[in-house]
Amino acid sequence: MNKATVRTSGWTAIALAAALVCGGTAWAAGKPAAKSLSKAALPAGFAVGSGQPPLALKVEVADGKATARAVADAAQANVTASGGADGGETMLTIRHDLAVALKFDLYISADGERFDYASSCAVTPGISSFEMWSRPIRAFALGNPRVVPADRMTCD
User: Fold this and answer.
1) What is the three-class DSSP state of 28?
2) Partner of 87 at 20 to 30 A CA spacing, among 34, 52, 66, 146?
3) What integer pLDDT is reported at residue 76 of this predicted model?
4) H helix runs in the chain, sequence order
């Protein structure tokens, strides 16, 4: 039996745990295979990019419903998603400054042209969500925010 040693920082360990929990939730729920879209077929209002500079959305919530539009400048946004890679692993950190929990649709792409739906966790006010993959991701697409009740915080 071979043993491998993995060194992680505190944030990497938290992200790994969240990824395992989220991935296990989607698998256990028997979710269908991920949907795949071309870049041109991504829905309107999605922020698309590498995560550096951060993806930026301006989300407005009224009557329990959220609407969003992509903005070019993160200073105008109230939702940001920053991506980074280290040693073949990719992490995306999503945060917002709204008073409600939000769930987003997240798509990832290895080539920047074909995007696959990815499981992601709802983002709690004041707490960042960390999504992580054990492969390089070239581009992300984030959009379709939805208000999530506090008792329905899931990863799917």
Assistant:
1) helix
2) 34
3) 92
4) 10-28
Q: With CA atoms as reference, report the closest residue to 120 among 11, 12, 21, 40.
A: 21
**Prediction pTM value:** 0.76
Q: Residue 89 has what pLDDT? A: 94
Spans in the chain with pLDDT lower than 50 = 1-34
> Coil, helix or strand for 13?
helix
Residue 140 near residue 48 (C-beta atoms within 8 A): yes
Calculate the alpha carbon distances from 61 to 125, 136, 147 in Å.
13, 33, 8
Distance of CA 146 to the CA centre of its chain: 13
User: Looking at this protein, which amino acid is placed at residue 87?
Assistant: G
DSSP-derived pairing of the beta strands 36-38 and 114-118: antiparallel
Over the stretch 41-69, which tens digit does the pLDDT of each residue have?
A: 999 999 999 999 999 999 999 999 999 99
Distances (CA, A) of 38 to 51, 110, 116: 18, 12, 9
Residue 2, strand partner residues: none
Q: How far apart are CA 61 and CA 111, in angstroms?
A: 33
* pLDDT score for 20: 38
